[in-house]
Design goal:
5-stranded mixed beta sheet; about 1000 residues; about 5% strand; mainly alpha
Length: about 1000
Amino acid sequence: MTAPGRRSSTFTRLLRHGFTDPSAAERLLESPELAPIRDDPVLLEALGATADPDLTLHGLVRLVEAQAEPAAQQELLDTVIAAKPLRDRLLGVLGASAALADHLARHPGDWQALVMYEPRDLHPGVEEFEQGLVDATDPVSLRVAYRRCLLSIAARDVCGTTDLAQTAAELADLATATLRAALAIARAAAPEDAAQCRLAVIAMGKCGGHELNYVSDVDVIFVGETAGGADEGKALRSATKLASHMMRICSETTVEGSIWPVDANLRPEGRNGPLVRTLSSHLAYYRRWAKTWEFQALLKARPVAGDIELGEEYVAALEPMVWKAAERENFVADVQKMRRRVVETIPVTELDRQLKLGPGGLRDVEFAVQLLQLVHGRDDASLRSGTTLDALRALAAGGYVGRADAAQLDTAYRFLRSMEHRIQLYRLRRTHLVPEDEADLRRIGRSLGLRVDPVAELNREWKRHASVVRRLHEKLFYRPLLDAVAQLANGEARLSAGAARERLVALGYGDPAAALRHLEALASGVTRKAAIQRTLLPVLLGWFADSADPDAGLLNFRKVSDALGKTPWYLRLLRDEGAAAENLARVLSAGRLAPDLLMRAPEAVALLGDGDGGSGLEPRSRGHLEQEILAAVGRADGAVQGVTAARGVRRRELFRTAAADIVDSYGTETKPTEADQGALVDRVGAAVSDLTAATLAGTLRAVVREGWGDTLPTRFAIIGMGRFGGHELGYGSDADVLFVHEPRDGVEEREAADAANRVVSEMRRLLQIPSADPPLLIDADLRPEGKTGPLVRTLNSYEAYYRRWSLVWESQALLRAEPVAGDEELAGRFVELIAPLRYPAEGLGEDAVREIRRLKARMESERLPRGSDPKLHTKLGPGGLSDVEWTVQLLQLRHGWAEPGLRTTRTREALAAACAAGLIPGEEAAILDEAWVLATRVRNAVMLVRGRAGDTFPSDARELAAVGRYLGYEPGHVGDMLDAYRRTARRARGVVEELFYGA
């Protein structure tokens, strides 16, 4: 007996052999069932070699206990000790699958299925599995026989007798035999139905591709025809009954569980379509209605059960359509949509554990291979395999994929599929999630041969292989394109020029010949620069293809590279800083504005890098901008040079703002799309408004210095109006302003006025001089008396005008007035002067309210451009910017005197304040805010895409698609975008009718 406090030698040996609960294992070893072999050293060695020694021992004891006779127990134990092949198979299964251990405990004689070790038993096919299922006559006996066959597959798998591809093929062959047995049971139950129809079962998905998982939906399509002269309708009804019964036999849960679900949703029209169709009906659907993904699914179609001749007719008839799918009109848009990994539907808690759908998962490999098959398989029959690894090997052999890339993907795919198999085998449950429990991870790691530190090694290998897939997924498409044009003698088969063009067209490039010329210019040769480009371009080309205009992205990249190619930091930045290359790709392919700004000073590419803490695209504060611009003006030789410097800073900062907006709107691999659309709008509005204010301050300083030295004869201030005053400027907005001055002591009013007017005239001239920098247009039309009034007024003149002549629209315009540059004290007194006008005591009278409503109605009828669709006009259309802003401003005019929160120049702040004050219900405030944000985003998108301002959606299809991508819509969904805009605007107009017009 072991002394108290001391561990027995058995306990220590168990620990050394990999048991995690030696105490429980010691008790099991002491059980009478194992008495004959307890002390045999072979037993512990064999248990310790399994994936989970504790689980194996527990399963073995249960199996021995379940033997009906002592003689049967002794036979089992003798075989375990004496027959190594059987021992490895049986214990291997018990250590990897609790579900199969349960099966053996219920059917203790089935361990005998593992005894055979003949050559035909090593790699059985459909015929052998059919023989194993031959005695199954009902769903229960079919499940028992299926599990018995599955035992032998799992045994060969866990012992390493078969590799991943062979195991997956055996599982598909067992599924084929099972479908045939299930159909035979269904036919036996309804012989009249069986006599009236021909029914073919077409395997799809992994079963069709001969690469099935342990537990997976078995995807099928049914084809039916008449038999024995039966009426077609009657025959199809009979075939449908047989097909439905066959599916239930496999899918339903019985006392022996289920086998797997049979899924027929890949059929024409999915679950809404008839379960069984005739061959001619299938052909009619695929000719007229099928989408690209449906032809992609047909890559794996294979007749497996029922009328095989009919199934082969089906495959032969559809095969030509499959290989012409790449010529279809919507192929490029469909591919772009399919290429974009859909992970939004995966719960955040599961995303990092997804083996199939997560980044770097199995779906990435499978999709890439299938897409390349569709593109190139029409001209190369060697690529027409339904099995992923076979197709990958053929792609490499034909030069469609680099050999090294294919080898790495093959290894990664095999590892990830093996992980998936081990995870599913444990409970025989359909899952693609890596478990979190350490015991589960330990078992999986050990089953894959990772024995030193199974959990850490498994996680490391998993992440490494997923990283390989993620890195190579896009390069798989594009690296061969570079090999085709790089003119390097590497001995590999290369894409032909025609195949390269086909691939570029399939991936969204409209001018493949030009694209190949750009690639050749960038990547040819043996220079270090060309070598780095060949490393970068496969990934960049994928990011370009993710946009609405891949050709523009590649062309712009060539221009930037030509301009900066000899600069040592440029390619190093793209190669070494994780964010820079992807940010650049997004910016260059999102439209005209950002690339145009960048081309004028390509060195701004440096802003796209990670910077210090990733702050390269963070907007700079107005204080920092003003400090930089004033310093540049101070160093300049004259006003022209000073304003040129100020405009250069403005160009760079406009690029920074636009680039940040594009990256936030598109998202990147490491940074998701910004979910708060209002925050995006506010960031752009604040950044452009601050930049405009700083530019005006610098221009004012430059003009004053050149004309008058340090002191202007009159104090001078600039007041921002409209969107400028509201911190809501867009990329294409003019700067709405008022100019106010006040003569200094001892200065004649005429001299002061002349000086002020000269300042304004010179500022406007210098900011619009044609140059590489975008002009800044100053608009002073909101001044008293409009275009007919003086451009500049003194403070006293403003006071006299507003006291005597001010109209209600001017009070409304002054709601947005905010000082932006010049004399702060004078600007402060101007703000005090206008306070009673914009926030009148006791609010507006009814006459004034009616006048505002009249002006708004007149503007709607007169100012909308002829020929434009009012429902899509973001500024003047129903529910557009004007509707929301006038509604908010009416609330400010009526209640600003009593509600301090309404005394703001910013639309969204005022709307929130009105809601907080109970002046507008929360739901209605949210509707108005959503409409205003969306309309502003559309205007920003139009400017980014077209390079010029616009208030309506573009008519050009590619430009419209680019606006859609900016707003978060997938390719082919611009109709959804327009519908969403109309719907949002319509709801907002309903609120405006109620709040503004009092309807």
